[in-house]
Amino acid sequence: MNKRKIIWVVLVLAVVGIGFLFLPVKSWAMALQTWIQGLGYFGPVVFILLYVVATVFLIPGSALTLVAGAIFGLWLGAATVIVGANLGALTSFLLAKTKLRDNVREWAKGNPKFAALDRAIGQNGFKMVLLTRLSPAFPFTLLNYFLGLTSVPVGAYVLANFLGMLPATFMYVYFGSLAGDTITGAGSGSASVLQWGLKIVGLLATIVVVVFVTNMARKAMAAADIPTDDDKLKPSEAA
Fold first, then answer.
1. SS3 of residue 106 by DSSP
2. 203 contacts: CB under 8 Å, gap ≥ 6
3. Could you give the CA distance from residue 91 to residue 74 in angstroms, rounded to a whole number?
4. Could you give the CA distance from residue 124 to residue 107 in angstroms, rounded to a whole number?
5. pTM value?
6. DSSP letters of 142-202?
7. Among residues 133, 139, 189, 195, which one has the least CA distance to residue 165?
8. How far is CA 115 from each of CA 38, 105, 107, rounded to the nearest angstrom?
9. Which of 66, 111, 86, 102 has the alpha carbon at shortest distance from 232?
10. Lower CB count within 10 Å: N or C terminus of the chain?
11. What is the predicted pLDDT for the residue at 29?
């Protein structure tokens, strides 16, 4: 992890800490949870639509993924995020192939990371899309558009996208579910210590799996001559 990433992590933790100290975070979270749950069966549907809109407009979904875990719990939260993220990714992918193709082509112009990815996808589309989804070196929302310029078939894109996002999704939703339990005071009975112990063990196991899979993806992409350094894939300055 380089200095820039460390600074960002420290800043995020500081903001979260200040928020909990000086803002009614618990009240806001409870109000949001009550509103979503008050929608009944439409709650997850509304959240899915929100996730689709956020993805199309290039809004990072990490915060929404955490919120899904806090509101819906691990399994329903993960299902909600997976459906919303995949629908959003498919929408962006199809827009890049149709109405926004010229715009996305300008974004990608002169980007060596995209050029290398495009060449690799021409040889093995499904594998390379899967690897980019497993690696944090490629931002989820923007990559959806860039992949729309490549030759990867829609079916292969959808399947690779679905499989590749599973590890990180479960990790973020797990974090969110633990935060939700903390805010609402769930598991405060006599068995709370054991329950929290099991949850923390599960979270650590999830983190280990994500780190392991991410390292594998980085090595595989490096072998395919795709840059995986900290120079993030981003729109060209000329766009």
1. helix
2. 171, 174, 175, 178
3. 25
4. 23
5. 0.75
6. HHHHHHTTS---HHHHHHHHHHHHHHHHHHHHHHHHHHHHHHHTTT-STTHHHHHHHHHHH
7. 133
8. 47, 11, 12
9. 111
10. N
11. 63
**Residue 229, phi then psi, degrees to nearest 5:** -80, -165
Structure tokens at 112: 């060596």
Rounded distance between C-alpha atoms, residue 70 and residue 179, angstroms: 6
Record the tokens describing residue 130, joined without a space.
Answer: 């899967």
The rounded distance, in Å, linking the Cα atoms of 153 and 64 is 28
Which sequence spans correspond to the domains of the chain? 23-223
Count Cβ atoms below 10 Å from residue 130 Cβ, excluding itself: 22
Distance from the first to the final alpha carbon of the chain? 30
Separation of alpha carbons 112 and 140, rounded Å: 18
